[in-house]
Design brief:
Strand order of the largest sheet: 1-2
Radius of gyration: 20 Å
Number of strands: 2
Distance between the termini: 31 Å
């Protein structure tokens, strides 16, 4: 528990102190955000707002976890787990891709950075590295960092091992690439209003912190009653998830409407990659669809809008993603943001009830 508190405090301090320092640096370098011309006209006043705020978010999470890991090593001799390192690799690698995209935007002085092809290639490389290492690197717990299959909670309902190890690895790489692409794009689409992505991510990662902590308390071989999870080093995953939530809280202090800095793709792609990796590491890939329900709504609204327009040349929403639709309906930006936070909180609570209900059922306590 002390290690968790240390991680939270370090993360919060780094975010609260580092963000204004970054704002001053970005102002000095004239690295302001360029607003897309096809967005709401009211957003044009945000042009020039400092971006690259995701740099501080990533650094705060990394330093928060590292300080916690150092404390555990010095006091208990615990060595950092490969599961944690790989999850952080997913976050940092996707954040690096986002940084390149953000940097290209400010250098070219436009709202378009990396090409779709370039971003896809980058995501494919990093996601593939994560997928392969998560399957083959042995862990100190004896449980794999990932399992070659699709899981709702814990046990795969579809295993990739049906045709041998090599095929399982190939299918798992495809699966991980899908998850990384889906979640990074979903969080990126959510990052369209001041505080929307930061606030909803704070709520989502808090949910994952609760799930990972419960798994660590009921880890297979730990001797606790009830159903036990074969998850690799969930306590490390708990610390990372909580540090991510705290980093979003600290960043939100400067990102709430009117924002004095944006997280940019550096932050949104990193948070999306971290969310995807946590779903894989905790064996909850399909529960994540509920846990990150707001992200799903945002992404699906964009898919529906584009698909319907190509088929009929008509629009379902006034503008996509859906948060812009409500803006154009007359809602103030702050009202949209707060209500969307409430929606995400509802999804997280539903996911936690389902997760706990699954544990109760598997433990035989439902009718006992």
């Amino acid at each position: 528990m002390i290690a968790l508190i240390i991680g939270m405090l370090v993360t919060l301090v780094v975010t609260l102190v580092g963000t204004p320092m970054l704002i001053r640096l970005v102002h000095r370098l004239h690295y302001g955000q360029y607003i897309r011309q096809d967005g709401p006209k009211s957003h044009q006043v945000k042009r020039g707002t400092p971006t690259l705020g995701g740099v501080v978010i990533n650094l705060a999470i990394l330093l928060g976890w590292a300080s916690s890991a150092l404390y555990r090593y010095l006091h208990m001799g615990d060595v950092p787990s490969w599961s944690a390192v790989l999850v952080l690799f997913a976050m940092i690698s996707m954040g690096l891709l986002g940084f390149i995209d953000d940097f290209a935007k400010v250098r070219k002085k436009q709202s378009e950075g990396l090409t779709v092809r370039g971003k896809f290639i980058g995501q494919f490389i990093f996601a593939t590295i994560y997928a392969v290492l998560a399957l083959i690197i042995p862990t100190k717990s004896g449980f794999p960092s990932a399992q070659a299959g699709m899981s709702f909670i814990e046990r795969p309902f579809f295993s990739f091992e049906f045709a041998g190890r090599v095929v399982a690895i190939i299918l798992f790489v495809v699966w991980v690439n899908f998850l990384m692409t889906a979640w990074t794009n979903a969080v990126n689409l959510t990052d369209g209003l001041d505080g929307l992505a930061a606030g909803s991510s704070m709520i989502a990662f808090t949910g994952y912190g609760v799930i990972a902590f419960w798994e660590s308390y009921h880890l297979k071989g730990a001797g606790h009653s009830g159903y036990a999870y074969a998850v690799s080093d969930p306590l490390d995953l708990t610390i990372i998830a909580v540090c991510a939530a705290v980093a979003c809280i600290g960043f939100l202090w400067y990102n709430t409407n009117p924002a004095t800095i944006f997280m940019g793709d550096t932050g949104s792609l990193a948070l999306g990659g971290l969310f995807a990796a946590l779903s894989i590491a905790t064996h909850t890939e399909f529960l994540a669809v509920i846990l990150g329900g707001l992200y799903v709504i945002e992404a699906m609204s964009d898919v529906i809008q584009v698909g319907y327009f190509k088929a009929t040349h008509k629009r379902v929403f006034k503008m996509a993603p859906i948060h812009h639709h409500f803006e154009l309906c007359g809602w103030q930006e702050s009202k949209v943001v707060v209500r969307f936070w409430m929606i995400e909180l509802m999804f997280v609570l539903i996911a936690l009830v389902i997760f706990y209900g699954d544990w109760v059922t598997r433990s035989g306590l439902l009718f006992g």
